[in-house]
Amino acid sequence: xxxxxxxxxxxxxxxxxxxxxxxxxxxxxxxxxxxxxxxxxxxxxxxxxxxxxxxxxxxxxxxxxxxxxxxxxxxxxxxxxxxxxxxxxxxxxxxxxxxxxxxxxxxxxxxxxxxxxxxxxxxxxxxxxxxxxxxxxxxxxxxxxxxxxxxxxxxxxxxxxxxxxxxxxxxxxxxxxxxxxxx
Length: 183
Prior knowledge:
This is DUF1232 domain-containing protein. Its main location: membrane. Residues 86-114 form the DUF1232 domain. By secondary structure, the protein is mostly helical. It has one domain. 65% of the residues lie in helices and 0% in strands. It has helices spanning 11-27, 34-50, 55-62, 65-72, 80-90, 110-122, 124-146, 155-176. α3 packs parallel to α6 and α7 packs antiparallel against α8. The chain starts with 10 loop residues before the first helix and ends in a 7-residue tail after the last helix.
């Protein structure tokens, strides 16, 4: 029988997470560290998939995959500022000494799972825009194949308009968002 547990993070709780993020960001200031951040998030996802973690933790950690895909998708073309924002949201996962050390069996990833929820909420505009872009790309490829057209011909042209519209919408929604967390 499943059991739902709900809890609320107070402003003080969020500030605690933010302090850890700020400390990790200070240690990861150079562009060379962007790859370290991506690698740490990928490692966390791999560990979640290969470990015998509780399902509620594993499910949340694997939700980071879309964020990692967004960073690595060359056709999505995140701007430098947007990329920095996404990496800033992931920097927490670079810290092996986070709130609960990952080495503690069963519970070590609990804080990471909580933080994933914060990341997903903070990046909801980026994620929804990226998911729409991916859906459009697949649908357009399929449409072109159905018409016996090569989906790679003029690919950048047919992606550019959709990408530009989604990037603009993403930024507008973010500006209008009232989130108090700062990355």
